[in-house]
UniProtKB/TrEMBL annotation, chains A, B:
It comes from the Bacteria. This is Helix-turn-helix domain-containing protein. It holds the Pfam family TetR_N. It comes from Streptomyces chisholmiae. PROSITE patterns: HTH_TETR_2. Residues 19-79 form the HTH tetR-type domain. Residues 42-61 bind DNA. Keywords: DNA-binding. Gene3D superfamilies: Tetracycline Repressor, domain 2.
Amino acid sequence: MDRSFVPFGKPRAERADAVRNREHLLRTAREMIAELGIERVTMDGLAERAGLGKGTVFRRFGSRAGIFRALLDADERRFQQHVISGPPPLGPGAEPVERLLAYGRARITFLLDHHAIARASFERGRPVPAGDPSVTQLHIRMLLRQIGPIPSLDGIAIQLTAALEGPLLLYVSRPETDVGLAAETGAFLGDAWQTLIERLVR
Amino acid sequence: MDRSFVPFGKPRAERADAVRNREHLLRTAREMIAELGIERVTMDGLAERAGLGKGTVFRRFGSRAGIFRALLDADERRFQQHVISGPPPLGPGAEPVERLLAYGRARITFLLDHHAIARASFERGRPVPAGDPSVTQLHIRMLLRQIGPIPSLDGIAIQLTAALEGPLLLYVSRPETDVGLAAETGAFLGDAWQTLIERLVR
């Protein structure tokens, strides 16, 4: 009701400022993670390094875990952007089976690369941030439909989503995973995904 | 060191007593769930109905959620017993593919039947009780090996475990699931499991 009385310029300027602050904070958080490690990223440290007030950081993220949720969210969007409009075979333009294989390997790598951030985004008393499995599920279902009629296709899309993401989500709830092991695990699970899909569609 | 001085009869009798108490408490808890619903099972209510002291119930389960963890654990053991030594096709004696199909359907039914108890066994600040996926994983891997050489077999066993249990574990973290929906979901996921396995091994 009162909205028409608020000068247009003000909220817009504030919004642009907020976006800039947010991007600046996320960039600074990434630098701190790379230099110091996740464990040593704190709300106070981030505010100091970003040259912003603690209040700004608190309003933006709510908690230390909120910083990592925001980072995860930003990377997740970028990943989905590659899937929607990036080069094939992950992006459009390849055969649906090729896209399904590429999606599996890319998603495994993404989840392995982000397991430490995902773990840091946990918060006591809040539900486990299981990502948004529906994006993976919708993509798998779309590609299966393009491949052709498969009995119980919708149920299989749900189960393949769990097959792909479940083993990596379990890693998240475990203590520190060795990086070497992670790369090996990625290849191991990627090969298994390939066999599963190739046999499903042959 | 002092153990030899303790009369043998005493600890044995106490242990048998503890087992009896435990079984009596679990049986009473099941009656209360059936009559009152899970929400109305409390530590005090259980102690009163079982005719035991509150201290006994507390020492036995530690918390209200502990009651449900104990129930889940008992049912899980019974389920695994059917798999190990029950009649085919779930138990031994059928072809490995038939056992794999039977295991999938039985496991889905088990997880759906137990989703309310599993949810009640959650505890703030404790890790999510994800059951023991390794039992399912070991069983799937054993049956796949009996079926014959499959590339990336061990990785596929991990992914099939997630495909089977993951979608049901997600239910657990959601609010109350409608029972009718649950039965329908079981058939839906069971059919998908069948297609997935039949295509994997054909």
